[in-house]
From TrEMBL:
It is an enzyme of class 3 (hydrolase). This is Adenine deaminase. Keywords: Hydrolase, Manganese. The lineage of its organism: Bacteria, Pseudomonadati, Pseudomonadota, Alphaproteobacteria, Hyphomicrobiales. One of its GO terms (molecular function) is adenine deaminase activity. It catalyses: adenine + H2O + H(+) = hypoxanthine + NH4(+).
């Protein structure tokens, strides 16, 4: 900052010179005390310079009847799960009042390695919202799946000093932490003086103590109030997650009160454009928490000031002189209806997005899987044994459950049991490394025919396919290979819906409006197969995530997360 800019801020704060931007007559919510004061808010550059007074400015906004709150901060998400580029995500989410996000480019890093992180940082330098990056700590997440890349500490250190980097992203390999794995230790040691993000589903007791002793400070994987309270009691900040699949807000909402709000923040983790268009982003979580009876200004505190404090962003989270001018203007505090957004002192308009410099896409040739035929989905029956473990899926959870089923077999293989809702699942390695195919069975989808395939397959992003018919499973997989990645639905020998995701098999080149339209079509096609899950495609994507209990499917086989070994 130049001396003359700082001088102008000081003078404008005193009312001696006009500010750059003034919001007149707005109800300012103090997220610390809960008071609402009708006032002007004066801004110079990217900084608030005055409140609780009258100001003149070069540009003015009428705030009459509206409320000003600090811009919202999404404390953990994977932008890739929005299925659009970071620049499209910016255009999609910023109007919902989200002015800062802390993203982990873990998904693209598992496909492209350091190139994927570099792409995200290049985008972050151009977005209107402030996109901050935590460096992916677990690529691959485990040795029990085949990823497209591997990141060791020497691959991460060149990015550490980047101005958009906050710290080390979610440390998913908690067994590696507890067993002092040398590669994990090297990463933890390098970030002991910075932020280390946590990921510890169902980790409690002395195991949790050991995990926290590594300097890990946050967790977004709590799925019950009891789990969250133990973690809070041990100094861990809880990030209440409400994504497209992982929906923990109802279970965790009760922990957010006047005693805990400084140690609680909000995140989405994985949320697609269709849900954002229909429900919103963090604004949706805020209004739902308030509707649950959570104290209003403590909810807004968790969404802004607490989030900033937890992650060391010392310049934002309050509407007060000297703080970053990230402001959401609301028509209603209770309903969190966002009508305007100021990001770093700029009123958000379509022109701001048009003025950004573009970033060339990467990973357009990352799909290296070979076409398959129906025979690869044959699951051989062991002599005299037709009772098999089955992955149990429930809506709104990325946790899966271990169930069993007695399946009939023909001369070739075990057969799905549609009456019992047991269908096939397979994961096909797509990075051109070994051609692995893992096969098993899953329940909870409700499919009566056809197949659903996805190249979004957390965390290694191989192709995951579920289905009742081997030929339709092969058809859906082969169409994804042709598209360079994406989603596909096959029914009766025809592809009935698809979405191409050619950027590393994860993100579209289309606008978020076009992607939302295609997702509508995909959901309808999945429903026509009998699918009962409200978000079938991301639910498929999480079947291959071997760091979330209890039973998962990887390209190497059926995996028991509790035992951390193959079934």
């Amino acid at each position: 900052m130049r001396s003359e800019q700082l001088t102008k801020m000081i003078m404008a704060g005193q009312g001696k010179v006009p500010a750059d931007l003034v919001i007149h007559n707005v109800g300012l919510l103090d997220v610390i005390t809960g008071t609402v004061t009708t006032t002007d808010i004066a801004v110079v550059g990217d900084r608030i310079v005055g409140t609780h007074a009258h100001y003149d400015g070069a540009t003015t906004i009428d705030g009459t009847g509206r409320f000003a709150v600090p811009g919202f901060i999404d404390t953990h998400l994977h932008i890739e799960s929005s299925l659009v580029t970071p620049l499209e995500f910016d255009r999609c989410v910023l109007p919902h009042g989200v002015t800062t996000v802390l993203c982990d480019p873990h998904e693209i890093a598992n496909v492209l390695g350091a190139e994927g992180i570099r792409y995200f940082l290049d985008c972050a330098e151009r977005t209107v919202m402030d996109v901050r990056v935590n460096l992916s700590s677990c690529v691959p997440a485990t040795p029990f799946e085949t990823a497209g890349a591997r990141l060791e500490i020497d691959d991460l250190l060149p990015f550490r000093a980047h101005p958009k980097v906050v710290g080390l992203a979610e440390m998913m390999n908690f067994p590696g932490v507890l067993n002092a794995d040398p590669g994990i230790m090297a990463k933890l040691l390098a970030f002991q003086d910075g932020h280390v993000d946590g990921h510890a589903p169902l980790l409690l007791g002395t195991a949790l103590n050991g995990y926290l002793a590594a300097g890990i400070r946050t967790d977004h994987e709590a799925t019950s109030a009891a789990e969250a309270r133990e973690k809070l009691g041990k100094g861990m900040a809880i990030l209440i997650r409400e994504g497209s699949v992982s929906k923990d807000l109802e279970a965790l909402g009760e922990i957010l009160d006047e005693n805990t709000s400084s140690f609680v923040a909000l995140c989405t983790d994985d949320r697609n454009p269709l849900d954002i268009a229909e429900e919103g982003h963090l604004d949706s979580s805020i209004r739902r928490l308030i509707a649950m009876g959570r104290p209003l200004h403590h909810v807004y505190r968790a969404a802004s000031h607490s989030a900033a404090r937890i992650f060391g962003l010392k310049d934002r989270g309050l509407l007060a002189p000297g703080w970053r001018a990230d402001i959401a203007l609301l028509d209603s505090l209770e309903n969190c209806r966002v009508s305007d957004v100021i990001a770093a002192g700029r009123l958000v308009t379509p022109e701001l997005f048009k003025a950004r410099e573009d970033v060339a896409p990467v990973g357009l040739t990352s799909m290296k899987a070979m076409p398959v035929n129906a025979d690869v989905f044959v699951t051989e029956a062991k002599a005299g044994q037709n009772r098999v473990p089955v992955i149990g899926v429930k809506p709104g959870l990325i946790l899966t459950f271990r169930e069993e089923a007695a399946l009939a077999s023909n001369e070739k293989s075990l057969q799905p049991d549609l009456q019992a809702d047991v269908i096939k699942v397979a994961v096909i390695e797509r990075h051109g490394i070994n051609g692995n195919i893992g096969r098993s069975f899953v329940t909870g989808f409700g499919l009566k025919r056809g197949a659903i395939a996805s190249s979004v397959g957390h965390d290694s992003h191989n192709i995951t396919v579920v289905g009742t018919d081997d030929a339709d499973m092969a058809l859906a997989v082969n169409r994804l290979i042709e598209l360079g990645g994406g989603f596909a639905v096959a029914d009766g020998g025809a592809v009935t819906a698809e979405l191409a995701l050619p950027i590393a098999g994860l993100m579209s080149l289309k606008s978020f409006e076009e992607v939302a339209h295609d997702l509508h079509h995909l959901r309808d096609a999945a429903k026509a197969l009998g699918c009962v899950l409200p978000e079938p495609f991301l639910q498929v994507a999480f079947l291959a995530l071997p760091v979330i209990p209890h039973l998962k499917m990887t390209d190497r086989g059926l995996f028991d997360v509790d035992k951390f070994d193959f079934v």
